[in-house]
Amino acid sequence: MKRYIRLTLAIGLISSAGFVRAEKVVQTPQPQTLEERLAILERKVQLDQEAAPARAKDGSGAVARDGFAVKSNDGLTQLKISGLIQADYRASNSVDQFLLRRVRPTIEGTINKVLDFRITPEFASSFQLLDAYGEIKTFPWFKVRAGKFTPPLGLERLQSGSAITFVERAHPTSLVPNRDTGLQVSGDSANGVFSYQAALFNGVVDGGTGETDTTDDKDFVGRIFTHPFKTSSSDWINGLGIGAAASIGHQEGATASGASQLPSFRTPAQQTFFSYTAGATPTIGDGRRTRVVPQAYWYIGSLGLLGECALSSQEVTRVAVSTTSATINNRAWQAAVSYVVTGERASFRGVKPRQPFDPKNGGWGALELAGRYSELRVDDEAFPRYASLTTSAKRSRSWTGGFNWYLSNNTKIVTDYEYTTFTGGSVNGNRPHERAALARLQFTY
What's the pTM value of the predicted model, to 2 decimals? Predict the structure, then answer.
């Protein structure tokens, strides 16, 4: 008995001095009571809590989560590295090729729970800086963002490139900016029922991207969006979102190289079907530019509906041909429907499969069917003075059918068939119909 007592006392003294941690308890002849064991556990918790401030101070509390995210021990600062890779195949009347559509690594994070930042370059085709901004978010209802980002206008334009249902966005996206540099204030209600954005940008052409400005003119952009039934328990109405956006600005003249600062429009297969007159007597912007974009989506369980209409108005003139100007009013709209046949919930942020692709364990991912109609009409006033009807179509109508396979949250296969008809655009009358097969293998991390 004396040997047991001496051995127990010796181990206890060494452990309390911090030299050895014994994972096995040397039992005395009398077993511990439940009260004694609880007391030991409480003491361990107390010691861990006392050591936490020291770990936070020296950074040892930082942990890696989700594979590429790191968060401080107090949760106020975090860094995330993510990326998007889209490898496409495109076959149409005029093109047959493999290409990298998007290669976008992203660095984003939060500093002291107040400042958000995001940096996203694009490496596909040619290098460009897509997003580079910081945002102060002191209150949910008032945030301030500065830098380069997507202006809050088009609904599908604001949808992440990794979450869009089809390989290419529809015609309304051609009439709104892609990226611009400026300042934005935004906010939303505590439960997300109502949100707003108001911004001041340098101003870019429809579908354009810009980082600098050579004039004093700026674009004012505003958007409101509401989920009127978001707090409802009914899946039939809580996925409804309705909004509207608008912009007003001024566009005048050409670039330093003489190029027109007016847009060109492309088909879903990315073939140009309309452009303003160029050359020695180009058509240029000559005054006010406005855009109006009503928009809505409705997600009911596995069913998704999305629609928007874009109206773009621009005053133009023809260099050395006329002293008068005209207001060109172009408009586009789309209606899209999707259904997840495997039963997962549809959403604006994409589909997350319940079971990742794993045939050995019976997992096949999520399957989605989708369809869309979209059209863009160029104002009759554009022809023939500001654009040629023999080379530019005044109307494009596209029907799209798609099948999507979500193998996991990080991998998706998208396949589309596009059929597009035109009014005008050829010396023989109408531009030939375009038939295009589009496919994409997408990876996100």
Answer: 0.83
